[in-house]
TrEMBL record, chains A, B:
Domain of life: Bacteria
Lineage, top ranks: Bacteria, Bacillati, Actinomycetota, Actinomycetes, Kitasatosporales
Protein name, per record: HTH lacI-type domain-containing protein
InterPro entries: HTH_LacI, LacI/GalR-like_sensor, Lambda_DNA-bd_dom_sf, Peripla_BP_I
Coiled-coil region list: none
UniProt KW DNA-binding keyword: yes
Keywords: DNA-binding, Transcription, Transcription regulation
Amino acid sequence: MAHRSGVSKSTVSRVINAEPGVRAEVAERVRGVIDQLGYVPNSAARQLVTRRNNAIAVVASQPQNRLFIDPFFDSHLRGIRKELVHHGAQPVLLFLEEPEEYPRVGDFLGGGHVDGALLFSLRADDPLPGMIERLGLPTVFGGRPLVREGERVRERVYVDADNRGGAREAVRHLVALGRRHIATITGPYDQEASAVDRLDGYRDVLLDDATPDLIERADYTRKGGADAMAALLDRRPDLDAVFVASDLMASGALQVLRERGRRVPEDVAVVGFDDLAPIAETTDPPLTTVHQDIEGMGRLMARLLFSRTGEPGEGRAAAVAEHPLSSVVTPTRLVLRASA
Amino acid sequence: MAHRSGVSKSTVSRVINAEPGVRAEVAERVRGVIDQLGYVPNSAARQLVTRRNNAIAVVASQPQNRLFIDPFFDSHLRGIRKELVHHGAQPVLLFLEEPEEYPRVGDFLGGGHVDGALLFSLRADDPLPGMIERLGLPTVFGGRPLVREGERVRERVYVDADNRGGAREAVRHLVALGRRHIATITGPYDQEASAVDRLDGYRDVLLDDATPDLIERADYTRKGGADAMAALLDRRPDLDAVFVASDLMASGALQVLRERGRRVPEDVAVVGFDDLAPIAETTDPPLTTVHQDIEGMGRLMARLLFSRTGEPGEGRAAAVAEHPLSSVVTPTRLVLRASA
């Protein structure tokens, strides 16, 4: 079209985007050619010039049913959407579950449709983070990514809660209650950093008292929590407290304690982690747990990403220069209810 | 770039896309200019020529928490994803909740990033369907869209279950059990076609026996079902059966019946609708309900859309000509468990 109208490409794009700096006569000529060609100034054309879509991908490489059932992702996504919409950017969700979905997601993310990505990828063996890094797409992680030993990667920017500090506070509370045999039900610590950190916090407080027979690994599901509680009770019938690394697992553990005739908190004190209201407030008894501001973490992820991509409407280079980027760890606090 | 290399635009695009029909010497010249300009053949440029992204939007204009909590959408999305991935297309999810999100979603959908849309828009007053129609994007609806009286719209293609037939079968079963005072708890029939159709099926069977005091409107939530059951029992303590228009509402109704000391099915027989396994199999007693193949409906939506957009890799015009497009209503069947 630049050829036909006899003006430069940048002039054409200024006319298409209604930017100033084009003489009225020239603008008229360009518009005439546009009409003649039946040219529609779609975003694909605009994008060649501005390289901006005002769209951000939210990518989750986890089983869909875990995402949908776990209120954790619901809260995270709520925070992300609020912040993106507030800044005029469209959140675009991509779920990955099966290996054959990866190349397609890579095509889409590399295809110039989005300005950046917010990534929920928690398994240490997930190829997704490396894939996105090779695409050069600005990315912020939800939760600290677990890096395999010896793996060399660029620094990954993330937003996470103070999992280790929160676990410490939970276990200190159980110690202060006079409990002597404090067990823990962990998340999948070979796969997720939050599980590693929460177990480390438990060990920080108990030191040599954290014997292996008091530690049972589970998978952040309700059923996993129930099975782990049963195993712990079989092995250590003398336990008088348990720190459970998620509310969902704690709800399963409480059910097993009830079935086995253990009173909570009289016989066994229970502390959870997350403070997901729909769970922690409705368990029997209501759950003492470690609160993290999940929706706030979602908003922070979006804000951190904008500090790399620039906000919609502002230049990218300027934004990157002004805001140096680093990960954020948000505080946690213990919320006392009836279970401990 | 066509200008600089002295060849036609279509020749440049053939070179970029590595298509045949360009003399080696010409291709070399084009590649030289590409190198000189530092030009990267990104998908935005390719898309100007092919207009294909191999990406399909899944758009849901419902509160996020309803989407996430309701297993209905989880199953639908599972079917859609399987079918899209099988055909090499990337599903891209867009949620709309607040009015201020509409223009942005419109920008994205109109921006050439996706080849078509699968739309879950169930409220009669939702501006989204009209917006997408104006964009000219091929669209298939999940569930028959309810059109307001007097509204003139193009024919909207949808996939739905036989809601009216399923409701008829449910109510006929209650009649065959000898029940005399059969109530119904409906969905929001001013807003959603499925609620209209399930109420019509109830009326088809009961005719003049479907008196207004046996009909209570609710909202497809568990709490709504519980409140409606309480209202019906207050008004018609003689009722001996209830057809509840969703499993989630039925689970709330069962709880109220238990609290009021009514035995199910001895005193009150209950039939639900949906056959969502996580609900219907775990209620007390397990729920007799109308089964619909939700995941299969999701797959069908994707297949119908491909018949308009063409499958990834094939031309769009050819596809549209070969497959005339019409809506599909899938069969339902009654599944007998303990509640009726």
